[in-house]
């Protein structure tokens, strides 16, 4: 792994564990085994590094969602949606990126509030596009029969994946798990 990648990994870990305010470039440099000024060969500032990592985390979530869509597009809609929710929750709950994701959703650095908001808005839009694919296909496949149900379910699913509604996603996932277990 090259120095820039090591800096990014150390920053992701530190931002996830300590937040933006609790992370210093000196800590990151020490973790990588370089001097603090060496970080400036790759990033102009802590702000730039944070925003870079935030974009990477959003991209990782989107890639995971798109991969789930592609790998399971021949499954029935219920299974596809279940796997999309499950894999998204697993990303958020089990990976270091997920910790970082939750941090920049809930604890945005004051000086980067607008930049982070822009990153999240772009991510929201792409998440909505992925969810729309599922619902469009569900309609085309005839898996949705009642137009009221389709509209309601579609809005609910989009709500689940919008990052500002992270808690809804987790609650919905837990209910799906209970339903799956009960139906076995």
Supply database-style keywords:
mainly alpha, disordered C terminus, 184 residues
Explain this structure to me?
The protein is mainly alpha-helical. The protein has one domain. It is built from 9 helices and no strands.
pLDDT average, as an integer? 79
Helix count?
Answer: 9
Query: What general outline do the C-alpha atoms trace?
Result: elongated
How far the N terminus sits from the C terminus, by CA atoms, comes to: 45 Å
**Count of domain modules:** 1
Main β sheet profile: none
Please bin the fraction of helical residues.
Answer: over 70%
Number of strands: 0
Please specify the SSE layout and strand pairing.
Layout: H1 3-18, H2 25-32, H3 36-39, H4 46-71, H5 77-94, H6 96-106, H7 113-140, H8 147-161, H9 166-183
TL;DR?
The protein has about 180 residues and is mostly helical. About 80% of the residues lie in helices and about 0% in strands. The protein has nine helices and no strands.
């Amino acid at each position: 792994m090259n120095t820039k990648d090591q800096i990014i990994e150390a920053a992701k870990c530190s931002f996830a564990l300590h937040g933006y305010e609790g992370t210093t470039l000196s800590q990151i440099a020490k973790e990588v085994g370089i001097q603090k000024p060496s970080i400036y060969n790759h990033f102009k500032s802590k702000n730039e590094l944070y925003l870079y990592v935030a974009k990477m985390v959003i991209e990782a979530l989107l890639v995971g969602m798109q991969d789930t869509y592609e790998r399971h597009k021949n499954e029935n809609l219920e299974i596809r949606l279940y796997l999309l929710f499950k894999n998204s929750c697993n990303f958020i709950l089990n990976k270091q990126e997920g910790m970082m994701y939750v941090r920049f959703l809930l604890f945005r650095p004051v000086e980067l509030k607008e930049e982070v908001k822009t990153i999240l808005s772009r991510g929201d839009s792409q998440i909505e596009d992925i969810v729309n694919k599922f619902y469009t296909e569900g309609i085309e496949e005839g898996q949705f029969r009642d137009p009221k149900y389709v509209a309601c379910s579609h809005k609910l699913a989009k709500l689940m994946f919008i990052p500002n509604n992270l808690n809804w996603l987790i609650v919905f996932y837990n209910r799906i798990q209970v339903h799956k277990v009960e139906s076995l």
